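Thought: the user wants the 3D structure for the chain below. I'll pass the sequence to the structure tool as-is, report back what it returns, then summarize two notable features.
Action: structure_tool
Action Input:
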Amino acid sequence: MKRLVLLALLFGAWPAAARAATPAPYAGQCGLPATQPVWMEFGYQFPQFNAILGKAGIVVGVGSGNYGAQMRAAGAATVYFDLNFRNRVGTTTAPADPSLIPGRVQSFFTYAQQQTGCANPVIALNELSGPGLVTPWSDNNAQYRADVLAFVQGLAAKGAYPELLLPSKPYTGADAGVWWQQVSQYAELVREIYVPAPSTWKLGPVLGNRTLRMEYRQAVDDFTSIGIPASRIGIMISFATTPGYGGRNNLQPASAWYQVAKWQALAAKEVAAETGIASVWSWGWGEWNAPEQDPAKPYAMCAWLWARSPALCDAPKAIPNFDASLTEGQLSVLPAGAQCLVGKQVLTNAAIDQLAKLTGDRETAYSALYERLVESAAQPVSSSDVLAAERAVIRQEFRGSRALYLAALGRAGATVPEARAILADQLRRAHVEAFLPSSPPTASEIATFYTSYPDLEVRLMSATPAPPWLGSRTQGLAIQDVAPDRLFALPTGRSERVLTSTGTFAVTALQDAAPLGAVPLGRARPAIAAALRTFAQGVAFESWTVGKQSAALTTATCAQDDLPQPAAVDLVQYVPFLRLG
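Observation:
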């Protein structure tokens, strides 16, 4: 642990992560593509793969023998893939003698040069043991991590580009974070993200692709969140067929696996473009044992390559009935300026930004507009009803002056269309609540309400037609915070027409307001029951809308998979003069 602290003092903290799409330092060298990211495939000396991998534009990870030379002769570029990294640095429980590291670096580097035909080879090191071990580390693990750091530092000093493969989520807290920052200065960190194909296929194209993208992003974020640049990070995706290794996992039919392979390529391509990571690797093509001898592998490989570039493999021609869609489930279907596409309905960033001026918070505006989009599809509201509500608000709250109304909207930061949409939200909610089932309140609930809220004001009113806040009667007690606020400001004996979200009512104040506790329970019971029904309808509505919104998210496509939070957002709190009672 002292060694880690010393490294931190010597090198300092890594600067904040930059997500610029800058090619890796090895891009364009020794035949590698000069692109971001560089795509690299684990190769193995089996003839059924040679024709697919042996071409320009493909980078193959090679080991011993003459396989690398064969691939380069066919037009591919090569990097070295070391399957015996533990032979160089030991393990977490049996680390290598640190005095042996320099000699092993030299011999290994020379061999990698020979196998790749490159003076400055890219070298994949398979793989770091125990990336998730928390600190404080044992003495053995601390020495192991020091050996790994010394090994990649030595390779980098000789001009190599080490790629440290990581089989699981890293622990990056405390002193471990310092170690990751230091090792990333000499080696690219390649996180293995092995999502089983059956689980991806079961989710379908929208959720399946979204899940892959989110998994890949999280792998990158694990490191960028501690200040490691995305340009020092790669991801690796599995195409193994042995169950438990995150690849095919017995997915049937084989055509489903080909689609998942396509989705994996498209998801990796999207995340690489978003984040600026250096590399994307594939693993698991080798057929070194019986469980891995899968005749579907060449076709999955073709689908994987084709999704990146049709020039690499003609999947539609090679695979019968192959679904060649490159847009289903992809973010590319979003129109310009759109944040979300739900069915055929578009939620734009401009609309969110505009409403955020009212809410003061973009996420609240985002959720509110998404809620409106989903609810309006289920329960439309006529423009004539909205305009009638607007006229009523102007009459009731602004003495009939539209100029005063517009001035109030301006002070609140709202526009006329936004105000009308908020009025429509209330009308829509009232329509939905009227049809949602809710249990009638019990005698115990009524008694508990009566004793719990003795200071709530009540007032004897008459109304035509019978409103819900009078228990659907034409005369009774109206309860504060349930009945429209205007009823409690109305002089006794005065009549008025009041528009609410449930309709327009002619009301008359029959008595002055009084505390609930001053009214006998028997007399207050109908009003309390009406209030409790109103509350129950509100709860039922929230459950209904959140359920509708959650269901809609399964088919929604949102930029960078930034999804809205399903919720029942009350926008009237920002413009209380629009409340319809």
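Final Answer: Structure generated. The first helix runs from residue 2 to 11. Residues 338-437+543-578 form one domain.
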